[in-house]
Task: inverse folding
């Protein structure tokens, strides 16, 4: 296996985001490109990352599944300059990473055995779909984080609402002027600890797609022409706002 990325910055950002949720993953490299699907240790959230074959300037491989410690990979990818390229080549039980910048540098990353079943993103049905500015969503989540440890996503009378209530409260409302809302009236509550980690995906693209239903898992997608980063989050149903 040998693949080359001319602009690894987006991959570096994605790996940094994923490493906040899970430390060890299986990275699949096949005829479709590079992908990661993993569940966090608490089985509350799932992440799916796809980088298509077309994003690579060189792509020579037999299908591979690479057991990787993401913290180690993250530290190496951060050594890439803004104008450099990176080459990944599997050699025996090692992944050789060559960074071509002002000078050529090589790292070797030990591949690890990960004893877990391959994960697949679940096929879920949602009653609500909201397209919203990534920055606006980040602000709404950060507002809620000031007052509580969970927030509610609500669709009510054609508006999308992000609200949280503890001793104090926070609420952000979006109409059809600020968001694309294709939704039924519903409400579901989610952990802000996880949502705040997901919000780092806003670094990747200007728009977020939110899908949810009443007391139902949330799906959050950040997509660009080059990559896709998606999250699934279980609802918090034990208490009401």
Result:
């Amino acid at each position: 296996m040998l693949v080359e990325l001319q602009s690894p910055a987006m991959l570096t950002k994605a790996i940094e985001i994923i490493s906040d949720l899970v430390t060890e993953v299986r990275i699949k490299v096949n005829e479709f490109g590079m992908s990661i699907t993993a569940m966090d240790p608490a089985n509350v959230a799932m992440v799916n990352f796809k980088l298509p074959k077309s994003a690579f300037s060189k792509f020579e491989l037999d299908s591979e599944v690479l057991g990787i410690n993401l913290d180690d990979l993250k530290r190496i990818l951060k050594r890439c300059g803004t104008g450099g390229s990176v080459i990944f080549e599997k050699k025996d039980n090692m992944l050789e990473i060559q960074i071509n910048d002002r000078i050529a540098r090589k790292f070797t990353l030990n591949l690890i055995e990960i004893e877990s079943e391959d994960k697949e993103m679940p096929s879920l049905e949602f009653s609500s779909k909201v397209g919203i500015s990534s920055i606006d969503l980040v602000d709404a989540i950060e507002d809620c984080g000031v007052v509580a440890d969970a927030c509610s996503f609500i669709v009510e009378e054609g508006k999308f609402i992000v609200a949280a209530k503890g001793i104090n409260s926070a609420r952000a409302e979006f109409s059809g002027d600020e968001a694309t809302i294709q939704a039924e009236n519903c409400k579901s509550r989610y952990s802000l600890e996880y949502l705040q980690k997901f919000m780092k995906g806003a670094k990747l693209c200007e728009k977020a797609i939110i899908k949810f239903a009443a007391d139902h898992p949330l799906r959050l997608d950040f997509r660009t022409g080059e990559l896709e980063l998606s999250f699934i989050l279980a609802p918090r149903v034990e208490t009401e706002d």
Summary: The two ends are 51 Å apart (CA to CA). The longest helix spans residues 134-145.
